[in-house]
Amino acid sequence: MIEYLPRSKHHAELHLTQFGVEDCIPGHYFGPAVRNHFLLHYILSGEGIFEVEGKRYSLGKGQGFLISPDVITYYQADAVNPWSYCWFGFNGTLAELLLKQAGLTMASPILYYDRNDMIYQYLQLMIESGKCRKARETRLTGLLYLLLSDLVESGPLTLPNPKESLAEIYVEKVKDFIEINYAQKMTVEDIAQFIGLNRSYLCSLFKQRTNTSIQNYLIRYRINKACEMMENAELSIGDISRSVGYNDPLLFSKVFKKVKGVSPKHYRTTEAAAPIAFSGPGQKSSRI
Hints:
Domain HTH araC/xylS-type: 172-270
GO molecular function, one term: sequence-specific DNA binding
Oligomer: single chain
Keywords: DNA-binding, Transcription, Transcription regulation
CATH superfamily of the largest domain: Regulatory protein AraC
Shape: elongated
CATH class of the largest domain: Mainly Beta
Helix content: 40-55%
CATH topology of the largest domain: Jelly Rolls
Protein name: AraC family transcriptional regulator
Number of strands: 12
InterPro entries: AraC-bd, Homeodomain-like_sf, HTH-like, HTH_AraC, HTH_AraC-typ_CS, Tscrpt_reg_AraC-type_HTH
């Protein structure tokens, strides 16, 4: 059984292209050939071989193999105990990243997953999604995310890149937290708890790496976001204030003036309201 799916127009990040299941006859093979999408096979029973980039893998139940786009591969069922497998074809801008998090890459294409029932359940739910009249594509995408999340959860522990120090990782986590939650009420202590480090240690580490404090980074990030919002004439100063984490407009104005040198109102009537000059095709615009 195989089902091919139309090209997704709404889920560019991740979408199924096909899925299926097959009880192979002895010696059944495919390839050598290339695919234009990711194709993940999971072995439900039996045995076979998978060949890629000069390497041969003998595989059985509870294992699988990843075929990456534009890579020549060959696979064949065992002559005595042929495999039965299911497969999921997919693509999208997030596909490679999610596979990498699950420990699956072109250089490491073998999957180890001992929960046959879960894989098969996802397959059955994908088949049953055919009953959906309006939201099948969205449901299939959700099931694919769930499947990959299980593989990530059960996959090998991802270690930090040796070229990237732990300090750099912590600093990036602080920045990410602020960029996602700047509109919420937060303290440096909240950030430290999220990162899982002592507040004083995290502050010292952040200052060493960025030459600014976490508090100052948060303030400037919020004010810069406020400046972007100033261009929307439908938003009042109070609306903007609350949207960047300041419930007190007076405090927001005080902080804004300290950072930008002018009041929010003055900034909006001068900087934010300035006309835009276009230098020409392919060139960045600038305010005049």
